[in-house]
Amino acid sequence: MKDSLKNWMLPLLVGVLLGSGSASGYFLYQQQGHDAHSQKLEQQIQLEQQKQLQQQQEFTEDLANKTSQFEQLVAKLNDELKEQKESSDRELAKLQQKITSLQQSTQKLTVTKKKLDTRVVQLKTETKQQQHVISNSQALFTEKANLQGELTQIKSQITQLKGPLAKQKKACDEFKSGTSWNWVSQADCDKYNTMNKEVVALEQKSTLISNRLEQLEKLTK
């Protein structure tokens, strides 16, 4: 019986040993495959990380370049704005100077216009006065000429009356004396008085005209 048991266990033990060897080999094979897959996966992860790092570096460099370009553009725009502002300030200053100059010119023109207006009024007044003087002068010359003519006539009348007046006075005096042999009467005295009054009136008028002519002579010089 012991021999039978040995015969039965021996094949079983051999089988167990063979099975253990196969399982160990299988597990070893499985472990080797897992390690290869892990290594490959790790390589892929490293490659992906390197790729991401490179992309991040490129993005950072690109961002830095764009930031630098943007800063340069901003600086350029600031310079242009500053230049434009300075140019605008210069133009504004020039315009302000022109405005000030125009205002001063306007003030001067206003003062000049006022002076001219005043002078125009003066000239108009002087012109009216001169016209009045001219008109008066013409009137004075006309009056002077008329008075000279009238004075000539009066003097002529006085001269013409003086002869007969003297004769009439003589006759009147003879009548008053009462010793004359000539035919004289009161009528001679009346006639003398009338003629004498006429001569006196003419002489008075002559004196007045002469005085007026002296005044006109002074006014028309």
Please characterize this protein's 3D structure.
- By secondary structure, the protein is an all-alpha fold.
- The termini are far apart.
- It comes from Photobacterium damselae subsp. damselae.
- This is Chromosome segregation ATPase.
- Keywords: Coiled coil.
Number of domains: 1
How would you sum up the global shape?
A: rod-shaped
State the total count of DSSP E strands: 0
Series of H and E elements: HH
- pLDDT < 50 runs, ≥5 residues: none
**With helices defined by DSSP (H or I, 4 residues minimum), what is the helix count?**
2
Please, what is the oligomeric state? single chain
The structural class is: mainly alpha
Strand content: under 5%
CA(first)-CA(last) distance? 198 Å
Mean pLDDT: 82
State the main characteristics:
221 residues; 2 helices; coiled coil; mainly alpha; Chromosome segregation ATPase
Give me the secondary-structure topology.
Elements (H helix, E strand, L loop, with lengths): L1 H176 L8 H34 L2
Helix pairs in contact: 1-2
Quick structural summary:
Helix content is 95%, strand content 0%.
